Amino acid sequence: MTIKDIARLAGVSVSTVSRVLNDHPDVSETAKEKVMQVVAEYNYIPNTNARELGKTSTDNIGVVVRGMSNPFYTDIITAIGRCIEDAGYTMVLQQIGAGDDEIMTAARMERDKRLLGLVFLGGKLDYTKEQMKNINVPYVCCTFSNEYGNLDDKDYSSVCIDDKQTAYEAVEKLFKLGHRKIAVLLSTIDDGSISQLRFSGYERALKDFGLEVDEDLIIEVNSYNIANAYQEMKKWLKKEHECTALFAISDNMAMGAMKALKEANKKVPDDMAVIAIDGIEASEYMNPELSTLCQPMEKIGKEAGKLLIDIIQENKTNKHIILKTSLRKGETLK
Amino acid sequence: MTIKDIARLAGVSVSTVSRVLNDHPDVSETAKEKVMQVVAEYNYIPNTNARELGKTSTDNIGVVVRGMSNPFYTDIITAIGRCIEDAGYTMVLQQIGAGDDEIMTAARMERDKRLLGLVFLGGKLDYTKEQMKNINVPYVCCTFSNEYGNLDDKDYSSVCIDDKQTAYEAVEKLFKLGHRKIAVLLSTIDDGSISQLRFSGYERALKDFGLEVDEDLIIEVNSYNIANAYQEMKKWLKKEHECTALFAISDNMAMGAMKALKEANKKVPDDMAVIAIDGIEASEYMNPELSTLCQPMEKIGKEAGKLLIDIIQENKTNKHIILKTSLRKGETLK
DNA sequence: CTGAAAGCGCTAACAA
DNA sequence: TTGTTAGCGCTTTCAG
Fold it and tell me: In which domain, by residue range, is A121 found?
């Protein structure tokens, strides 16, 4: 069943069918009705590929999300989506798995969907100029920036929190509460990802407060996985450590850690205070409720969308927006 | 940059370029190298639409997942994916939001991607023959079946747990532990979804055990949302109810409920035992750890994949597989 | 092993 | 308001 068949069955030309299907104004009511009826009768569905191929222009904006099914991103995506639709554009969402390359995915989308712009959600921090040659439309990095890459600031946009600073504030919070032996739970110290960024905030804070960075208090998980965080924490707890507080670089990892703490009979926050960064919904339902520095999800999405649309529409220049986090008090601090 | 440009730059014909790009065997090493080099030099990326349009056959199997970023499905998807790839097919994954129509999405995919088969993950329970006329390839429903629709069993396949029976077992477990006043936390009693199915298991169990179905013990949330479950539970707890146990139809809802219980100073499991169904990772990290009847995620995915491939390859008939759940002991039972 | 050319199903000038 | 037709960028016969 192709557009030709529909045209024949409706007794009109393919262009008329195309016009009806695309809501063009210059079609008579009679023609429209006839076509619609045939379309309905035969359950005709136009072929997207052919459509996309034939088109000369679109109003598509792509969103590439790294990390399939990461509840962390849902609110951000929703906000971006609303922003894009409100401005009259269409959001083309693509979620990719841990193993996939977001740049190549985006590059392909850009060509296939004739994108006007792109937003990368949760990508890597080390994009290079070389890589980005594949992307020829404006793009904004959302929840991350190019900390470990070599892009020129003027060549891309970003919306994110200040990860180093936020980590610093988390540690500061613990310090002010009287903690002097503060452990850190992270993915990898120097993997060039958010983990490294947040760790460096931890390091700087300790130094500023006159504390030593104690290797025994660095718990490396080598993943952001909750189960792995639990296991590594469990392992770490087997040895005795002089330590009263834990800074987990993400809510998710904190959740794993808290289970390990519970099993080791360490009371939170009495035996061990815990603070994290992110503010995902699940951590709000922990017992005790996790104290964490929340990313302003909705605002991140909104700003990213707005920024990109500004650039697309008015040819504005790239910008780098840094948003503030807010402390969710929770019950893991003392 | 099109295939023509590459052909010209490499000094060969477009068909040779196409052959190289698609790993056809009948190309000389020299030609291959030349093409590859030009492709690399210009960062050429073939247009998917044109590709898909031109192709006469594919090895694509579609997977439509309802519920963006539902961590519940990740393991299932992984298992399906492995199954499909191992059999030499390609998985085409499409996640859709709550508002989208999975049948239309699938129908479009079927045509666009020339699918050989489809798996629906987490869809609705009321597909009709009329609707399914849009789907012309074999498909298997994963984690749900056609309980409230009118499909012929022989026209589709399914892999899921027995929701009624599982709910029955959950209640039975509570009953055997001595509970006689058992509340149920659900989405909507009769929304034609999993919630209704599980509720009917609850009802039947109560009847079998000689207990009354007490309207005061039915907590309707009208969504599967954790925050809403929390709120409704909170509301419900404001009134005094003679009740010692809660059956939540999903882990997620149980998590919301447990926070409400905690805030109402109801100790779990002493004041209120809790059991749920699903077995998602997060509920394992609750405190106390949620007792729940786990769906065999990986097995569900594996069976679904295997089933579909059997049908595609050997023209086998449709089948309906019912998998058993397993109790995760947890700490919310007493 | 290679190239020419005919589609794939649609959109979009251009003419009528 | 409508129809004709030339692409869109690729794959795939079919010759050579």
Answer: 53-161+297-324
